[in-house]
């Protein structure tokens, strides 16, 4: 695998050996190396014709425990001017670490061992839990009944799904569920499911109710006319809109079966189906029945003022007493539609609002005595 420079340059340029490159982490390193224009040599003890064709060259080395490995390894290091080795398999890393040390080789291993890396990943995750524990407890009214491991599970799951919901917002989501009434959990605008997965996991944990996600996954609906061109045109044009709902289903299947479904519709049409039928069926998730009253709603669709206003007009009157609204991007660098709608809600229904706070750029509002009337 070469970076596009001349053959003569490559004879002098230092390289990184990825071994075994057939491991998923090895393949990931190779992909990242392409983006960095890095000189990388891929090797494996098992021939993989597909990988060889994909990257241009796959070197075959013996297994590390075979007698011929040291000679073949050192020969490759010398011929290809390899200065570093990325070893994603624990046994290979440990063997190379000892071999390099015993032979005083100048090459070095990239990063720590896979075992230490996983232990470090766990420790970083639990440090994150410790960072947000007090905040979650405070927002939950004193002490959340989520264990540290449950909080860690939510953060890890969300961290593995693409999306812009940050950790502060996710922490606040964890905090509000204990005080939510029984009812449906609705999300308007889901992209590939980062926040929807959090809502589904928490709704199941607290037995709040079934979850419904609504997103048209369509370029026209995603175009935000009130925003600068980068958001209005450039970003919208990058998505492949037939892939998005498939990516969404993949992310939601592990947490959604039996209590979750989705509609590939715009908000207004999804509202009609929800209000009139209270039943949604899809091939991936089967049939799910909804109550028709909303415990928690996350509005994160098109951020144009008119669209956010319409979402609130349609959905908020169906909220249960003590229900929560999460209005995404109340603080947003690319437009003020959510903030204008949020400010109007806070002003007009102040007597019916029990709690309101901003966290992770989102506005969280708990309606107290009654659900708000039609928003005007």
Helices and strands in order:
Blueprint: H1 7-12, E1 15-18, H2 24-36, E2 40-44, H3 49-55, E3 59-60, H4 69-79, E4 82-86, H5 90-102, E5 108-109, H6 114-139, H7 148-159, H8 167-176, E6 184-188, H9 194-206, E7 211-214, H10 219-222, H11 229-238, H12 244-256, E8 260-263, H13 267-277, E9 279-282, E10 286-289, E11 294-299, H14 305-315, E12 319-327, H15 337-348, E13 353-359, E14 362-367
Parallel strand pairs: 1-2, 1-4, 2-3, 4-5, 6-7, 6-11, 7-8, 11-12
Antiparallel strand pairs: 9-10, 12-14, 13-14
Helix pairs in contact: 6-7, 6-8, 7-8, 7-9, 9-12, 14-15
Explain this structure to me?
The chain has helices at residues 7-12, 24-36, 49-55, 69-79, 90-102, 114-139, 148-159, 167-176, 194-206, 219-222, 229-238, 244-256, 267-277, 305-315, 337-348; strands at residues 15-18, 40-44, 59-60, 82-86, 108-109, 184-188, 211-214, 260-263, 279-282, 286-289, 294-299, 319-327, 353-359, 362-367. By secondary structure, it is α/β, with parallel strands linked by helices. It starts with 6 loop residues before the first helix and ends in a 9-residue tail after the last strand. α7 (148-159) crosses α8, α7 (148-159) runs antiparallel to α9 (194-206) and α9 runs parallel beside α12 (244-256). A 7-stranded mixed sheet has the order 8-7-6-11-12-14-13, sandwiched between helices. Residues 2-10 have low confidence and may be disordered. The protein is built from 15 helices and 14 strands. It has 2 domains: 7-111, 3-Layer(aba) Sandwich (Rossmann fold), CATH 3.40.50.20; 164-367, Rossmann fold, CATH 3.40.50. β11, α14 (305-315) and β12 form a beta-alpha-beta unit. The protein is elongated, with a radius of gyration of 26 Å.
